[in-house]
Design brief:
Distance between the termini: 26 Å
Order of helices and strands: HEHHHE
Number of strands: 2
Largest sheet: 2 strands, antiparallel
């Protein structure tokens, strides 16, 4: 999963931790026969990106800082796009991201 993100994608953030988690994914199993349908593929990508975000935020035990809302939305939008492009690379790992704003 960390290979989906590089420093250019993160703009003014630096990744200080990216911990892969292996999880069973009922979402992918349920959708794998429908990946040729753009709407189903888009729903799967949105669901997986949402799960990554929820796990990341709950693991940090705080919400992501509101001042960075647009940049954070951009990061998760890019992640969703990556899931859409290559769902067969899932569901084997996703990751928790810990970001720090660079000064």
């Amino acid at each position: 999963m960390s290979s989906l993100l590089d420093e250019d994608d993160l703009k003014c953030f630096a990744v200080i931790a990216c911990d892969p988690l292996t999880v069973p994914c009922a979402y992918f199993t349920k959708a794998q026969d429908k990946l040729d349908d753009p709407q189903e593929r888009s729903k799967l990508a949105a669901t997986l990106a949402h799960v990554v975000r929820a796990w990341s935020e709950s693991s940090m035990r705080i919400g992501l800082h509101a001042d960075n809302k647009d940049l954070i939305e951009d990061i998760y939008r890019r992640l969703q796009d990556k899931f859409y492009e290559k769902p067969e690379g899932l569901p084997y790992q996703y990751c928790l991201l810990e970001l720090v704003k660079m000064t």
